[in-house]
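Explain this protein:
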Amino acid sequence: MKFEDLCRETYPKIYNYILARTKSREISEDITQEVFLIAYRKGDDFLSHENPMAFLYVSAKNLLFEHFREKAKLAPLEEWEIEDSRGDIFEQLRINHVRSIDEDIYFNRVLSSLSERERKLYELYYVLKKPMKAIAKELHLSEPALRMKYVRLRKKVRRIVADLDLDAF
């Protein structure tokens, strides 16, 4: 398949994926354009990729992550919503430089409140950035079971963070 044909076929899907997360047409257009620019720069490597659509989605996901990381750096802490879907709470804390929180103490305090298994889950996905499929295989779990463990882990972290008194640090 030619690059132009692949673009015509996949552009709306990638754009809608990004739009669903950003809720902004302008930002979605910019990020979508950047996704296809990355693919274009890869040239034949992209076209010979075993799953070009997956490559585009992963590129979009990474660019969205960067977009929200930059957005979090600029947002005052009062505008934050812990329940927000921008990603992991630890990453949000490490990115935000508006308040002078000793993030390492906060980070370590939250991690120390987790069980050894929960810390391992956290490290595999959020620190080592392993895909869910690889983690599921490594831990001998089905992907849906693993995803549920991450849902529970995020809820627990939110409860721990809510119980911490940030002013005490």
Confidence is low (pLDDT under 50) at residues 77-86, 97-102.
